[in-house]
Amino acid sequence: MSGSIFKERAKRFLMYAFLIVMSFISVFPLYWCFVSAFNTTQEVLGGKLVPGGHLMENIHNLMEQQQVFTALKNSFINTLLVVALSLTCCSIAGYGFEIYHDKWKDRVMGLLMLSMMVPFVALMVPMFQMFSAMGFLNKYIGFVLPSISTPFLIMLFRNNARTFPKEIIEAARVDGLNELQIFVRMFVPTMRPTYAAAATITFMNSWNSYLWPRVIMKTNESVTMPMLVANLTTGYIIDYGVVMAGVTICTLPTIIIFFFLQKSFTEAIAGSVK
Amino acid sequence: MKKILSVLLVAAMVIAMGSVAFAAEDGKITIWTWDPNFNIASMKIGAEMYQKDHPDVEIEIQEVQSENIETAVAQAAVAGNLDTLPDIMLCQDNSFQKMVINYPEVYTDITDMYDFEGFGEAKAAYSTIEGRHYGIPFDAGTVVAAYRTDYLAEAGYTVADLTDITWTEFAEKAKEIKEKTGKPVFCTQAGSGDWILIMIQSCGASMFTEEGAVNLKDNEAIKAAITVYADLVKDGIILETNSWDEMIGTLANGSVCGTFNGCWILGSIMATADQSGKWDITNLPSLDGIEGATHYSNNGGSSWAITQGTDVDLAIDFMQLYRNVDFYDAILPTTSAIATFAPAKEAPNYTAVNEFMGTPVFATIVEYGMSVPSNITGAYYYDARNAMATAITNYINGADLDAELANAEDTVNFAMGF
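Above: the input entities. Below: the structure tokens describing the complete assembly.
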């Protein structure tokens, strides 16, 4: 009896030890980044791991070198537009693919999935050509348009729509709701966790998006946060304290969003795998 | 449905055709450059100076990283849409020829519009293709050997002992310095190839022939440089780090006796205020037994290009600043950007004794810059540099040098389509 308790404890101990090590590995870079934002460049290079008193100085230098508020504003507007539009668009698509299911829609879905295999770099030049011809450079629409509909989000909504009971739809139809009302009043409220997961993923992707904005945003006024952080490391002299302050400011919104929606996020991702 | 589709297609074509055009002359100068503390700060000071005499001219400086400028040029050229480009843009010297050769429609030939008298010959050569000038030289990448004088004193040496010497002499002295101080003399990023390029340029040698053919395997200067470098690494005189940041770290925490790089490295050195008065610079050792070997070379730096079809005349007029000694004098204190325009060395800020170094270090660097032999970069510079860096790493790990260089040459030839 005592042997099995011992075994159980040893197992638990090993599991915790493993988890502690893994959490340390995951959290350390973030810790180092936050701490370094409080230190001077020399202290960062010297490997100092406790916060110093230079945060305000680093932020002041950052503000002096870069238009932080413009970048934050642009990143927020771009990201919120993408989240709102892509969630609307992809949830309707995912719902449609699953609820009005037929053989041809499956084939279209297959094609959509295939398009996930085409790397973005392969599309970049033709897309730049199109967007510059349409006058979308340096504009929010240039950032938002390519991200409104993504095969991944459609797939996420479609898979989660499978768990949505068909009987409810039938009942709603009998009760006289039209198709749009069924979607808005029945489907959307039930699928809240899926929306939360999709919002988290989309928020992170578009907040951290770097390559495409680099291609189409050419003015100081259209700069986004990741572009701003990248700008900090291009000089002959790199001020690591300032870089880390920039990285911290850039990371905070995604961390906040993730913590807010964490529970729904894991639920929906686990749901979609089932 | 068909009708709507065809209307849309026609509309798209009209829009697309309408945009294939050069930017209109709008009396405004747009500039693309990177680094707010260096290039951008210099251009801002320049813009202020220019606008004093030309209050009507609007000057807009946009921050764009160098690789993004290159991508934007490529995209604009491929899309036939040059109006997405600015009037003036900065280009890394090592990329300049590649960009002009690949996208000649973007760059203005300014040979007959601009006076190149007074600029370092090697510097101007970076942006010269077949005798035609496409770039206005800006900052120097003149190589300096910078030493911690306190460490040298510990070993019984002064900077003068390490001036005008050969690499063989350097190796002997460096061994003693390392023994007495317990510190490597120099530090460099492993696998970057920078050192070899610095050494071969100091002999006026290049990775390419004048005809543009790759020249690695039978290049005596390259072989000599790699041998010298590998021996120094094996003896622990040069410390190789895995990253650039780590390399800068060794300077900041004083774990090496010096550094050997483009003069812009002084910016990182001078940022360590507690080391003030402990540094001095000199020229670099020369390669033994190689024809044309000197003590001067270059690493880094960039030049300004003017795009075609934009406000070329206005841009050229604005760029006369780069022939103005007062401009170089004005930008030096805030940016540490060192001129490649010889007359600048007489400017007050250049001749003044630098507080950190205790010598008029900037005038010395401009003078070094005038003695740098020029080299050929061509369109495949970075391919050759990467291939050579692989050869160096393999050689240090015990491979045969001739075989490695032959292999590197094949790699570059393959990239060039031969």
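Note for the figure: Chain B touches chain A at residues 12, 15-16, 19, 34-38, 62-66, 68, 71-72, 75, 78-79, 81, 84, 245, 248-249, 252-253, 264-265, 267-268, 271-272, 300 (CB under 8 Å).
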